[in-house]
Amino acid sequence: NVSHGADALLATLSRINMAALLRSARLVKISPNSLLQLSSGRANGAAFAQLRCLTISGRGTGVCRAGLASALGVNRCRWQVGAVRPFGLAPEQRGISQEEPGSAVRSRQAQQFDWALSKLDGSVRRTGRITKTLLLRIFHDICRAGSPSGNQALLLLRSCGSLLPEMQLSERTELVHRIWDKLQELGAVYDASHYNALLKVYLQNDFKFSPTEFLAKMEAARVQPNRVTYQRLIAAFCQEGDIDGASKILGFMKSKDLPITEAVFNSLVTGHARAGDMGSAENILSVMTAAGIEPGPDTYLALLKAYAEKGQMDKITQALETVEKTEASLMDRDLMEIIFTLAKAGHHQHVPEVVERMRHDRGYVPDAMNLCLSLITQGQEDTAFQVLKTFPTLHAENQSTDSPDLGNFFLRHCVNMDKPLEKLLQFCKDLQESNLHSSALHFTLYCALDAKKTGLAVELMKKMKEQGLPVRQHYFWPLLTRHQKDKNVEGTLAVLKAMQELGLQPDVDTYSDYILPTFPSLERAQAALQENGCSVDMEGFSSSQLKSEAASGRLSSVLAMLSSPTFPALDLSAFRSSLLQGFRRSDDVESMVKITDLLYRDERYSQTPEGSAEAVAYLIYNLFDSMREVDVQAKEDKLRQFLHGLKSTDIKILPSIFRGICNLLDSYHVPELVKDVLPLVDETKKDSADYPRGLEFKISSLETKLAELKAENKPVRETLKQLILALCAEENLARALELRAEHEADMAVGSYAILINLCCRRDNPEEALNLKREINRKDSSIALDANKYFTLVKVLAKHGQLDEAVEILREVKEKNVSIPDQAGTAFFHILNGAALRKDEVAVCRLQEAIFSLGLAKPTANLCSPLITVHMERDDMPAALQACMDCYKQYNQLPRLHDVLCRLVENSDTDLLQKAMDFVSQERGEMTMLYDLFFAFLQTGKYKEARKIIETPGLRSRPGRLQWFAEKCIATSQVEVLENMVELTQKLFECDRDEMYHYMLRVCKDTGDWRKADTVWTRMQEENVIPRERTLRLLAGILKSNGQEVPFELPEVWHEEDTAQGRADPEPAAMDRRHSALPVDSPMECQQRLLALCKRGKTKEAYKLLQDAEKKGLVLSSSAYNSLLKSLLADGNLEDAMTVIDIAGTRIGGFSLSDTASSLLVITQAKRDRVRDALASLRTMLQNDQVPSQLAITRVVQAFGAQGDLEGIQAVEDMVMSLGSSINLSRMLFINNRALAHIRNGNLEAAVEGLESFLTPGGEGSAERVSSVSFVFRKVLEDNQELALDKLSAMVERLAHHFSSYRPATDLFLQFLDCGRTDDAKHLLQRCPGVGEQKEILVSYMSRVARSPGQAHKIKALTEALPDFAEKETVYAYLMKCYGQDSDVSSAKALYQQMQAEGVQPDELSLKRFATLLKSADEPVPFVEPLESFKFYANKLKNQGREPDAPKKN
Questions:
Q1: I need a labelling partner for 1017 at 20 to 30 A (CA). Which of 114, 423, 1261, 1414 fits?
Q2: End-to-end Cα spacing for the chain
Q3: With 50 as the cut, is the pLDDT of residue 59 above it?
Q4: Cβ(113)–Cβ(105) under 8 Å?
Q5: pLDDT band at 66, cuts 50/70/90?
Q6: At what angle do helices 1117-1129 and 1154-1166 cross, to 10 degrees?
């Protein structure tokens, strides 16, 4: 058929009106060499003659490659010969002898390739593109490592084409040439795949080159071209409209028996069109049909692009209509190529017609983003803007009240490509007027600042001011930071001038942190500013002077400045640290007392709601907090004098702050100073000191206290609330209601809320409703917590009181009650409960109320009860109709899979056909086929499922397959999953490793190693290349069942072997067996030694080696290395060195393995033999070994502990050659360098190094997630209070000046970790933004909850942050801690507290609690969740919470 197809192709070509074709028909029987001797005057005839000679399966006469290069020489004049790169010979062909890289190098290459591939693949999968920054980072890492592999070279070369839409075509080509030359210089060996990749990049970048020269270079390098090479050379000729050149390549393909593929025909369509022969281009489709090859989407796309280049919109429309009638299907991505071609050819007027045909398929947005980026890069930003406005998410979000921020990528790229200011302003205006972006101009300014485009940034700020938008100080900080770093005075003054033009005067922070540090001295700064017309009498400059005077200890000058009536208002927090620093340096106590008194009484220096009194109180606390113990003891008299002075001024402090000062003074061992602080305490507020939160009072004592307060006619509201809370925790509803009746006038809203919640739990809707009405009578404006409302609605709906339930929902809306993120789950349980009761009316009314009031958006989960209620009644027509109605009304198809399964089980073909027609029409045929495929699988109809999955043109949809696989795994449907894996074997683009990984997960859950072994066999039959995670999963299954692993895994030696040894059921028997072995031969001795090492019997193994040494037995390198690893893992350095000496004597050239070498480095570092460790590390690298990450870390930490900065630098220089293969964090060197400075007493250098890295815009701005917790922990462990003072001041500066709260949060958590709760609370008071770092705080809880005995740390966190919003998360981690500690009483108390507060435990917490109760033989007071721990953990993860599931329960 294929050969016949080629004949049909040639016959059809012969009908094209070229007389030369008739004369050349006889060429079929002529040697191809004679074909190449045709004159250029008969080029067109020759072109089709070459096509006529082509066959896909026949054999040709054969032609040498040299002949092809010479034959193509006729067309060289059409190409830019000078543009061809000097491709090099393969190394072995240049006469260069290159050694085969060692195993460690190959291992490092493999690790780097996997890392680079993962990074690039992740970027492409997520966005469809990669960034220049990422590509260059990978390129530099590979270059630093040296010895690039062929895979690495191929990966980099392929990435330099259309995957870089943000780069100009010429830049992309320059980059690929740079990569080619550099990798070749480093020894990369290029084969045909590399040349093909380069050809592909040339085609994608429209780079003009000579195919003839390209082929000649390949031949010179002795690299054999293959079919792909010829195809791409044909495409290169056709891209220039050179049919003659293409025909000669076709002739050679004939001579080499190479098949014609659809790609060749597509290139010919383009070639004829660019040669101006549209008739021949169109006729190619007929040629393909006659050849038995149906034109596919790519062929139609080539023809459509040809029409687009000519601007023939009528032809495009006609062709698109033709495609719709065929089996070929054009995706949105194909239409985007037509749009790009139209825009590039200047036919912008036709773009809207093609845009209207977009179907907005899945993946439309990233593809459209890449189209926009390419258009902007090519100077077609107007067309790109038209495409931007078609994003489907825009129209969806326009319906909401919140204005979206879409188009950020568009504005950023326009700024990066230096588009004119006028266009940028117009785009911003259009985006905001269309409600597509809430702050387009602000974001454009941000991009200009980020790109360091000073001129554009200033012009944008001027436009913002013209439009009445605020221009703020910090907008200029990135510009000033750049000049400050370079000490560029002129640049700084230019920015100041721009600020003045916009009517802005620098404030304190701007002067102090960004302007003055640029100048060598304050006087020079003042003079330069005055010369350039900057007023030095303004507030910012004056405040900066104040900070400078204070820090230098000139307190009398500070007092004069603060006392001046003309001195501007300035918050104390702006200069507090400078003032304290000056006081510590100065002996001028009198001035400090007067300054403190002035700050206490002058409201100018306190701009916080708390007032100046509290600010001064914290100043006094910070004075002690900022001093070391030795300093406080040395300056005790000075501090006492200061406190006596304050007493004479009648300054008062709060009791809570007094307690904090007392704690500090106690820790400093100067309790005598407490007596001097005590007179400062405000006596009138002593009763208002905070009581410990979470204190549980006994019910009897609370009732006694209530009676006493009532008898004394004192307020009882707070005590009453605590008593009701305690009663509700004890489920004593009757007594709680009695108290409510007795003290109705004193009832607080919180008390009512607790009672309502308990009534709902007790299924008492009447009493709950009465309590709710009572609240409304007291104050109709009072609103309850959302969860209380939802609980009330649930119980009302359960008892058929729908009118009241709907009224409650209306109240939630009217009172603007804050709806939590998990409200969707609560609504689902309300609706699903009604559905399970078969109450259709309740479901419809409640759902309509929820959606119409805007309490929740329609989702598949919330719509599913509408279907459930009909399925519970077995009314499938109604269920299907409800499903279809949901889609029409809410664009959701809830429980469609369940409906289809029921229809298949019932053999209801009519309804099934109706369902499939509907899905096909609304969501596309492919979606319909997958839905039907899954339904047949679920119901065991595997033959029907096979017919569906073998539908021509069906592609893999990983998301759908994953959904069904996870469903099978969660419900242990092994047979169904196994059939899905088998049936998808031939599915196009199906990730077979992923499918078999699903199977292995089921095998692991069921412990079926035999099935796992069968899966491994099937993978080999399919030639599946497994990923490392798949191999590890399979190895784990086999090992856990005592089976041999039939493949090699990366070595993880000591921990795994030890663990395996512990799992052995008969270790004693094995030891006896090994003891019985004779040791007269090296082999027997070696076997016994390895067995003892594996069993952890290191001492016995070492003794055995000594005995062997006495007998003169020589063991293998692996035996010596195994013993070395055991000894070093135990920290036995001396015996290990003895073994090294023995091995070196017995085996010439003995060397330690990578693992043993790394363990040696670690052990030496632990023993403080750091220089030896450094030497061992250097030896490893010289021997081409890759040290472990832990080894490098231990050496650097040891140097940091010793204060050896040179050692840290030496290690950093050495490991630079490893690149990213060992995944070392940059923070390792930064943190330990800071610790070394601290150890050397150079605190300023330590703080400066950390601060420069952590400051936004500084050298670490790209690593925003970096943590300095290690530094804080070490400083706290070593009780280095002076260093802690400096670091505390640093984190406060970062928090206050840059809103950078990560360092402050790290310090806060370290305080909690080491039990310094008061320090943590005071830091929180100074940096309240720490409490808003939800992600870091939740991560901390997650981390501490992994170890037993850590519940007190989470409790300490909640005490410090009583208003932390994520109570459900906190309680979940507390429950996990109690479960690990087997603390039943605490878990029960927590559960009662959650019930009393109306917090709904998640299913994972309930599962943990139930397991804990059952282990203690106590009853479970709720229905235990039936699924596994892993199931509920995954469910929470999908909802945005990620608690760790227990490994074993």
A1: 114
A2: 63
A3: no
A4: no
A5: very low
A6: 30
Q: How far apart are CA 659 and CA 681, in angstroms?
A: 10
Distance, in Å, from the CA atom of 886 to the CA atom of 898, rounded to the nearest integer, reads: 15
CA torsion sign for 876, 882, 885, 890 is negative
Least confident of 376-385, 816-825, 1027-1036: 816-825
Taking only the tens place, the pLDDT of each residue in 261-292 is 888 999 999 999 999 999 999 999 898 888 88
Indicate the pLDDT class of residue 235, thresholds 50, 70 and 90: very high
Picking from 1371, 1439, 1442, 1440, the residue whose alpha carbon sits closest to that of residue 1408 is: 1371
Beta bridge partners of 681: 653
CA–CA distance from 739 to each of 328, 715, 1392 (Å)?
A: 77, 15, 20
Distance CA 988, CA 952 (A): 10
Neighbouring residues of 333: CB distance < 8 A, sequence distance ≥ 6: 363, 367
Coil vs helix vs strand at 583: helix
Distance from C-alpha of 1379 to C-alpha of 1173, rounded to nearest angstrom: 43
Residue 903 · residue 875 · CB < 8 Å? no
DSSP letter (8 states) at residue 988 = B
Other CB atoms within a 10 A radius of the CB of residue 634 amount to 12
Taken in order 679, 681, 683, 689, is the CA torsion positive or negative? negative
Q: What is the mean pLDDT of residues 833-838?
A: 88
Q: Which amino acid is at 316?
A: I
Residue 1349: exposure state from Cβ atoms within 10 A (0-12, 13-18, ≥19): exposed
The helix/strand count (H/E) of the chain reads as 81, 0
DSSP 859: -
Distance CA 217, CA 184 (A): 15
Mean pLDDT value across residues 841-852: 88
Using CA atoms, how far apart are residues 1320 and 1208, in angstroms rounded to an integer? Answer: 32
**CA 1009 distance to own-chain centroid:** 35
Other Cβ atoms less than 10 A from the Cβ of 570: the count is 22
Q: What is the rounded CA–CA span in Å between residue 475 and residue 481?
A: 11
- Which of 714-718, 833-837, 1411-1415 is predicted least confidently? 714-718
* H helix or E strand, kind and range, residue 384: helix 381-388
pTM over 0.70: no
Q: Do 825 and 793 form a contact (C-beta atoms < 8 A)? A: no
pLDDT score at 1218: 67
Q: Are 508 and 573 in contact (CB under 8 A)?
A: no
What is the per-residue pLDDT for 1321?
A: 85
What is the C-alpha to C-alpha distance for residues 454 and 461, in angstroms, rounded to an integer? 11
- Give the whole-angstrom CA distance, residue 1229 versus residue 1199: 10
Contact in structure between 653 and 659 (CB atoms under 8 Å)? no
pLDDT in tens, 1079-1125: 556 777 877 888 888 888 888 888 888 888 887 788 877 788 888 88
Q: How far apart are CA 401 and CA 80, in angstroms?
A: 57
Mean pLDDT (the chain) is 79
Q: Among 67, 61, 50, 415, which Cα is nearest to 237's?
A: 50
Cα(1375)–Cα(974) distance, rounded to whole angstroms? Answer: 33
DSSP letter, residue 820: P
Alpha helices in 857-991 (DSSP H): 860-872, 876-890, 896-905, 909-923, 925-938, 942-949, 958-970, 974-983
Give the whole-number percent of the chain exceeding pLDDT 90.
Answer: 15
As a whole number of angstroms, the longest Cα–Cα distance in the chain is: 124
Q: How far apart are the C-alpha atoms of 109 and 234, rounded to whole Å?
A: 35
Average pLDDT for residues 1074-1079, to the nearest whole number?
Answer: 44
Tokens read off for 167:
């780069």
In degrees and rounded to multiples of 5, residue 1306 shows phi and psi of -60, -45
Closest CA to 830 of 816, 857, 809, 810: 809
Q: What average pLDDT does range 879-889 have in this prediction?
A: 90
